[in-house]
User: Which sequence fits this backbone?
């Protein structure tokens, strides 16, 4: 018997017992579909996270430095001056401060509320955020100017009433007109719009575009002179990020020396890179994909046991057929090949159905969970799941096939 004949016989055997064959495949179908959907969703989430970090910009260093005795934001100035001395490693530094008080932004007949929770209808997607930053705010946070200019060093030093708009704030106040040179009022105080940014277009993060950036020196008058403790430092490259983090950590350790108990009486600080955060999230998602894949793989193993069980039943049902074939000279390897191919065909068909269900399930899960309209599993996942199902058929079909090939012709022919 050649391979093609074995395939033909396997298909005929499956077709003769459709219901039993389908129930046998069910474990494989569920297992393959589960693997495809779970791993694809985790990969989709990982991709969105990486897109977020790419949009936010690589080589960003988040610094928190809080002094217990800093009443005039002296730490902020020291850190700013130190980063300027690292010009070979650092592109810029900006405070990462947001106006915490309730505010009203007006232009003409349009009014935007900031931090207004009074009516209970706070809409996060449309809410505006007033940021207080340096002249390097755009560089540090990966914004690109669409028009106008950034705030200048003199704007910061002299506390000039200027602002730069994010794409969301620009649209909300000015629609499609150029806002550069126009004046908006924030809590009744006029601010000249000197520039506006291109959209970040980050799904699920509208606050990245819904910003109005002011000089951080307005912290004294508009933010109740709260202490500035958070900063963003932009390094020139990945290698510069590592070196700059080391130098910043050493510098801040000098500002806030620790006691023998590991704490400082002067303040606290930490230095963290978004490069390491992105890698940590990527590693977590990879581990999650492996765990979910392993859980779904249990369904495949259960399905494989079902294959072995039904193949043993098939051997019993076809004992006389096996006896006749051995009586006329069929070799053991021929019998083994026939049953292995039948088990592999059952698993292959189940795998293909499972992949089809998995693709549909991935589309649905992508839309519901990740807001992706056309998310499909990668070819690597689908091919891997299919091959695994075939291998399961071969592995779990091996014992029934060997048992069938070991039957003695005389004994087999007597079977009823």
Assistant:
């Amino acid at each position: 018997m050649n391979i093609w004949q074995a395939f033909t016989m396997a298909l005929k055997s499956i077709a003769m017992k459709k219901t039993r064959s389908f129930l046998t495949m069910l474990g494989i179908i569920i297992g393959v579909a589960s693997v495809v959907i779970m791993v694809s969703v985790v990969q989709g989430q990982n991709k969105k996270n990486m897109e977020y970090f790419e949009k936010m910009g690589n080589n960003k260093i988040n610094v928190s430095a809080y002094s217990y005795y800093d009443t005039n934001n002296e730490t902020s100035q020291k850190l700013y001056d130190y980063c300027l001395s690292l010009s070979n490693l650092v592109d810029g530094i900006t405070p990462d401060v947001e106006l915490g008080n309730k505010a009203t932004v007006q232009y003409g007949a349009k009014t935007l509320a900031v931090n207004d929770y009074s009516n209970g209808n706070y809409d996060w997607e449309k809410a505006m955020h007033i940021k207080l930053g340096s002249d390097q705010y755009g560089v540090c946070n990966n914004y690109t100017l669409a028009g106008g200019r950034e705030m200048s060093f003199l704007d910061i030093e002299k506390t000039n009433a200027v602002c730069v708009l994010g794409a969301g704030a620009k649209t909300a106040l000015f629609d499609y007109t150029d806002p550069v040179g126009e004046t908006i009022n924030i809590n009744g105080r006029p601010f000249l719009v000197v520039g506006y940014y291109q959209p970040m277009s980050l799904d699920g993060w509208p606050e990245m575009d819904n910003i109005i950036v002011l000089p951080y020196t307005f912290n004294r008058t508009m933010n109740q002179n709260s202490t500035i403790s958070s900063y963003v430092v932009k390094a020139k490259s990945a290698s510069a990020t590592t070196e700059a983090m080391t130098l910043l950590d050493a510098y801040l350790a000098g500002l806030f020396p620790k006691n023998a108990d590991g704490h400082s009486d002067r303040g606290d600080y930490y230095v963290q890179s978004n490069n390491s955060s992105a890698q940590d999230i990527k590693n977590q998602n990879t581990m999650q994909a492996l765990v979910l894949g392993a859980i779904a793989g249990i369904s495949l193993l259960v399905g494989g046991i079902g294959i072995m069980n039904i193949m043993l039943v098939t051997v019993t049902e076809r004992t006389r057929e096996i006896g006749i074939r051995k009586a006329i000279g069929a070799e053991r390897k021929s019998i083994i090949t026939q049953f292995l191919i039948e088990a592999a065909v059952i698993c292959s068909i189940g795998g293909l159905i499972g992949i089809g269900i998995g693709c549909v399930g991935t589309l649905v899960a992508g839309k519901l969970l990740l807001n992706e309209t056309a998310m499909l599993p990668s070819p690597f996942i689908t091919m891997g799941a299919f091959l695994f199902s075939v291998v399961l058929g071969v592995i779990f079909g091996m014992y029934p096939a060997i048992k069938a090939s070991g039957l003695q012709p005389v004994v087999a022919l007597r079977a009823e």
